[in-house]
Amino acid sequence: MEKKILRLFIGLYIVVGSGMAHAEAINRIVAIVNNEIITFHELEKALRDYRPSVMEKVEQEEFQKQVLFQLIDQKLVDIQIKRLGVQIPSDEVDKAVARIKQDQGINNSEAFSAALLKEGLSEAEFRNKIKEQILRFRLISREIGSKIIITEDRIQDYYQKNKNKFQKTEGVHLAHILLAISEKTSPEEIVRQKKKGEELLGRLKKGEDFAELARKFSQDPSATQGGDLGMFVFEEIEPALQKVITALKPGEFSSVIQSPNGLQIVKLIDIKGAKEVSFDEVKGRIHEQLFQEEVDQRFAQWLQKLKDRSYIKVLL
To answer: Which end of the chain is more exposed for a tag (fewer CB within 10 A), N or C?
Structure first.
């Protein structure tokens, strides 16, 4: 009966709204989640959080749906937060905002407001986003994280099977081929760059020389040196790239990966001073990794159960 009433309400909303001005029409309902709605305005705001480079013209409609499905997932979680009465004190949001300011090196309110303005946010909107994230984290910790136990045996087993991932190095010698992409790059050019990246990867797999292809096609100053970037301290490399490098042996190259400057194919030329790290040194790191993997897996299952027993209708 409740669902029938809800559908009737939505029908009335559409009929009444049909005569509204365009400014109000953009706030049409794009999804119903139990007794909650998601509007096109909310969807547009969520889409603005993504860089233009990830929204290729040929995939805009599909990307829009993906973001809407993310909003539906968030709405389901938020409904559970309300149902279970999960709350946080306001000073917890204050502390989180203060940490973010400190991490970003922002020392005064004016600079903070200016930084938010560039992202199209007011301070109140930003604080609300932080509050929502903390509440969702608290719910997941309560419903999922508190029930997970990672045993010492499991950590030890992972260490023994992945010793090659736990090495201390004085440095790593890298090269790359970069295909530049920025926020100003057109969707058509992004598609061309991705296609070019896959073509270059195919040529490398067939045995063509990495340095020679870098000289011809890389859009980085290192191209004149065959893409050679020199030595890096491993711990100072960004975490996402660390994972890529860890999976490579000297002489091997990565797939085409997204980086802040564009598309990259990274080659590990050499590792200097590699030595095995003891179990005790990495035990905490392994525990954190296994715990997060378990949380991700159980959260997906938990969310699916929520979906199965919820009323969800997509109107986009």
So the answer is: N
